[in-house]
Write a structure and sequence with these properties.
Chains A, B: It comes from Paenibacillus mangrovi. Chains A, B: This is Metalloregulator ArsR/SmtB family transcription factor. The structure is a homodimer. Chain A is mainly alpha-helical. Chain A has helices spanning 10-16, 19-27, 35-42, 46-58, 78-96, 101-114, and strands at residues 33-34, 62-67, 70-75. Chain A binds a DNA duplex through helix 4.
DNA sequence: AAGGAATATTCCTGTCAATGAATATAAAAA
DNA sequence: TTTTTATATTCATTGACAGGAATATTCCTT
């Protein structure tokens, strides 16, 4: 219960941290697209495209709609919202304590003195 | 020149897409911290901590301040701003074409007809 | 029903990156 | 100057994961 909440879903990040997958995500800005179209536009082989799309779907970044033979992939809003709030929470923190570095240095100095080994 | 701008720096993402590094970043919400303190609090060995900190620094997520013996690491605002604008650009796009899926389906149908192989 | 198109899955292989252990470097303390 | 503290770096090992090739599956077309 002592919330050590990582907050951000790691699968989202690791899914995006791969060039081809990032390219897919960027491509899908243009709207929903079939596997074949994605593979063509990005110069990927169909199986690799499918694999990357699976990773992206599993992580919740994309969703699929089966249309007969085709599978149409499109972006999902949720993970981007999650990323957004995560980033914002950091921006807030950084505004506050923007440069407590000097405070921290003084803390360090004090600790030194409190555990002072010199015989005074 | 034909701007195929990935926009988002991949090193930022891949740096964050590793649990220990994410933990470090989360920990540094509390403010700047030395290597030893980070290692202790996260139960990491010092060398591993240093290595992860190097990755985070190289990617621009952290910056170091050398203070005598110690190295004090702290968060940098810039990569979070970059992430923020990247995410926002997506949110805008998704608001617009939120569900052009049906449009796309009709496009598909049309293409089928235009490249119709039946003898008319 | 047969053939073909679109997509997914499996298996293998190579590569990269995280880990552990040991060691190097730098500064502080004695 | 020797020792100790704090941190970085090197090297070898290992595990995860992306790519390639082949194949399975599903649906459409004829």
């Amino acid at each position: 219960m002592s919330g050590k909440n990582p907050g951000m879903d790691m699968t989202t990040l690791s899914a995006l941290a791969e060039p081809n997958r990032m390219n897919i995500v960027e491509l899908l800005r243009d709207g929903p697209m079939t596997v074949g179209e994605i593979a063509n536009r990005l110069g990927l082989r169909q199986p690799q495209a499918s694999k990357h799309l699976k990773v992206l779907s599993d992580s919740g970044i994309l969703e699929v709609k089966a249309e007969a033979n085709r599978r149409i992939y499109k972006l999902r809003a949720e993970p981007f919202q999650a990323l957004d709030s995560w980033v914002k929470s950091f921006q807030r923190v950084m505004e506050d304590r923007f440069d407590n570095l000097e405070d921290y240095l003084r803390e360090l100095q004090n600790k030194e003195k409190s555990q002072d080994h010199s015989n005074g």
